[in-house]
Design a protein that fits this description.
Largest sheet: 7 strands, antiparallel
Number of helices: 4
Order of helices and strands: HEEHEEHHEEEEEEEEEEEE
Strand content: 25-35%
Number of strands: 16
Radius of gyration: 20 Å
Shape: globular
Distance between the termini: 36 Å
Structural class: alpha+beta
């Protein structure tokens, strides 16, 4: 075998190894939020306790939390809007602090004082289907910036919000930070509920400060009995995946599962 042939074979092996390394990594489903399944995933439900919610069989069609995945160390997080398991839009972020689980990140120790901006540099992947609808006020895909967790403000809280949206001041009771896992009239530092009427899964991006505005636009019907919370169209389910080792996530049109090997 000539030197040139040997170099060619070596080059092919290197390319093959690079492709394998590029594809390496595993994503696991930690949570799914369906804003119209009859279960309310507000600020105080599941996020801090990390208990199992729902079933694996209905993990991508109803509210779901995997206690095992919630307790798994993670370096990356993907928030995926999907239509019955088919990816509609996805953003992937890298955590500032590596190796912590969602149980730690959303747990009581990080809730007081809360208000953590947990990623930096914005999304490392942002993929949206060409035919995706309702992008104008989507709480994840209509605004930019990084992820903020446990956004406590006065007696209100939002579990996941984008920094490109409105972030209420710590003592400002304006009911005007919108995202995933929301509640008004709670103690967001201790996870204590004062009034269940204000809990809601998903609120869309809007400028509706209390008390001047009393019409908070939501997705779906999963919310408390307050007349100020207004049901609205469901843009999709929102799934939260974590990974220790993968920067890339499947693209729009791909099918989701509990575990995704890249």
């Amino acid at each position: 075998q000539s030197l040139d042939d040997g170099q060619g074979v070596l080059g092919e092996k290197i390319q093959s190894l690079e492709k394998k390394l590029e594809k390496a990594g595993t994503w696991r489903l930690g949570m799914n939020i369906n804003p119209a399944d009859g279960h309310i995933f507000g600020y105080t439900v599941g996020w801090a306790t990390g208990i199992d919610i729902g079933s694996d069989d209905e993990a991508l069609t109803k509210d779901y939390l995997s206690a095992k995945v919630w307790a798994t160390p993670a370096n990356y997080i993907a928030i995926v809007r999907h239509q019955r398991g088919v990816v509609d839009a996805v953003k992937v972020f890298k955590f500032k602090v590596p190796g912590e689980s969602l149980s730690t990140r959303f747990g009581l120790k990080n809730m007081n004082p809360g208000r953590q901006i947990v990623t930096q540099g914005g999304p490392i992947q942002e993929s949206i289907a060409d035919d995706a609808d309702n992008l104008g006020d989507d709480p994840i895909f209509s605004v930019g910036g990084d992820l903020a967790f446990n956004w406590a403000y006065s007696n209100n809280g939002c579990r996941i919000v984008l920094t490109g949206g409105h972030l209420s001041g710590a003592g400002v009771n304006d009911d005007n930070t919108h995202g995933l896992g929301n509640d008004f009239i709670i103690n967001p530092l201790t996870n204590h509920v004062h009034d269940k009427a204000w809990s809601h899964d998903i609120s869309n991006i809007q400028d509706c400060p209390h008390p001047a505005c009393s019409y908070v636009r939501l997705q779906g019907t999963d919310h408390g009995a307050s007349s100020n919370l207004k049901s609205g169209p469901v843009y999709g389910n929102y799934a939260i995946y974590v990974s220790f080792d993968s920067e890339k996530f499947p693209l729009p049109g791909d099918m989701l599962s509990l575990k995704i090997e890249m």
